[in-house]
Amino acid sequence: MADYILAIDQGTTSSRAIIFDKKGSIIATGQKEHEQILPKAGWVEHDAAEIWRNVQEVIGLALSRADLTRHDIAAVGITNQRETAVVWDKKTGKPAYNAIVWQDTRTQDIVDRLAADGGVERFKPVVGLPLATYFSGTKIAWILENVDGAREKAEAGDLIFGTTDSWVLWNLTGGADGGVHVTDVTNASRTMFMDLETLEWRDDILEAFGVPRSMMPEIRSSSEVYGAAEDSSLLRETPIAGILGDQQAATFGQAAFQTGESKNTYGTGCFLIFNTGEEIVHSKNGLLTTVGYKLGDGPTHYALEGSIAVTGSLIQWLRDQLGIISSAPEVEELADKVDDNGGVYIVPAFSGLFAPYWRPDARGAIVGLTRYANKNHIARAALEAVAFQTRDVLDAVNADAGVDLTELKVDGGMVANDALMQFQADVLGVPVVRPVVAETTALGAAYAAGLAVGFWNGLDDLSANWQEDKRWEPSMEAGERDRQLRLWRKAVTKSMDWVDEDVK
């Protein structure tokens, strides 16, 4: 049998291909960033065609760096930025419009229109999500309402939709020449269209959004063979056998399979997932109810999620928009030059506030500025904003779960930042634990694919692979923690009520 699994990680800022061995260790990686298209304030787009070209390139990079061929790969798993919506012509393979990214807020008018009949929680008992610009549904509706000819082509059955997992899978399995149009339950649960109990599209909700059912991919489990790579691919005939949305994939890669287990991923945004097992738990504290995973014909596992829109992208903003740093690691160097934040707090509500506040009227704010403050304080405040937002979400998780978490497993690119992880432990008041393999998003997709083809025998094999790399214990005094949280929460209130009729 082939000795490796390849995972495609189609993320918000880049696409990667990572090859894993049976122990879950990384053998080789290929990575390439794609353009962040920002046409207007609040608009965030990607070129789906560029993403597909990059995916093909990074597959080649990973294989060449590992000196492997398709014969060495047992299966391919896909993980992806979840709510980002791609609508394309199934006959030509050309996107009808740029992919509208999960961070995009242009659809607030559609949200308001739908919420006029039943409020923002109109569909939440069925789909687990409030009406918000975050999810795919309003993005599809916007394309159909605003792109010339899109509505007519969709109703004729020519346009189809997918999150980027579906886009990559469709192209990888043949595209316009027989490509497989499928998504998995985790991604489907982020559209606002899937019934959490039946795992099927709801015709009444699709109708309310004005989206033809013919556009929607088939919903399948997270771990099964969906198809094989087409003949022209470097992975020709290799089975594509796992799909998990990025945050569910990271949870799976952290081996958080059981009820009560959790993880927090620090990427473009920050996402804390708490496994509720086979029970659907509806949050009373601003969290989302979502599908955690489903393996083949096995039971569906659900989760509560706290979604934070801006964490790693705040550091990217310091680099690309403000020019304070020239590379992401420099933010830690600047932050280390000062003992504290100098009274500066950054609330990065670039796309409004997500969990647990859900305030689309919020916008980013830097507060507490004096002449004493400098770029070092701003860098430190940016890192601390990540930890403060995570504390807000963890408080909501504890309230919903009825039992406090005793430690937090972490992963993602920002966990390499020791200063941030120590501050995170201090603000939470519980240990923060990083695994040996921090690329748990890609690892989770690899695990799902490997289970489907017998590369791993079961969840016990995956749990045995998990190893602790580093642990940060809280060291901040309780009084100082309380003071910092009080000031943070005051800063959050200053970001609210900004957007009104003539301010977007």
Structure summary:
The chain has 16 helices and 21 strands.
| Terminal residue distance | 56 Å
Q: Beta-sheet strand percentage?
A: 15-25%
| General form | globular
Helix/sheet category: alpha/beta
Give the tally of β-strands: 21
The overall pLDDT average reads: 94
Global Rg: 22 Å
Task: Please count the helical segments.
Answer: 16
Uncertain spans, ≥5 residues at pLDDT below 50? none
Give helix % range: 25-40%
Q: What characterizes the major β-sheet?
A: 7 strands, mixed
- Largest sheet, order of strands side by side? 15-16-14-13-19-20-21
How does this structure look, described?
- With 504 residues, the chain is an alpha/beta fold.
- It contains 16 helices and 21 strands.
- Helix 10 (312-322) packs antiparallel against helix 12 (375-401) and helix 12 (375-401) packs across helix 13 (418-428).
- The termini are far apart.
- The mean pLDDT is 94.
Overview features:
single chain; 504 residues; alpha/beta; seven-stranded mixed sheet; six-stranded mixed sheet
Provide the fold topology.
Layout: E1 4-10, E2 14-20, E3 26-33, E4 45-46, H1 48-66, E5 73-80, E6 86-89, E7 99-100, H2 108-115, H3 124-127, H4 136-146, H5 150-155, E8 159-162, H6 164-172, E9 182-184, H7 185-188, H8 203-209, E10 218-220, E11 223-228, E12 239-245, H9 246-253, E13 262-266, E14 270-277, E15 288-294, E16 300-308, H10 312-322, H11 330-335, E17 345-347, E18 365-367, H12 375-401, E19 408-411, H13 418-428, E20 432-435, H14 440-452, H15 459-465, E21 468-472, H16 478-494
Parallel strand pairs: 1-5, 5-12, 9-10, 13-19, 19-20
Antiparallel strand pairs: 1-2, 2-3, 4-7, 6-8, 11-12, 13-14, 14-16, 15-16, 17-18, 20-21
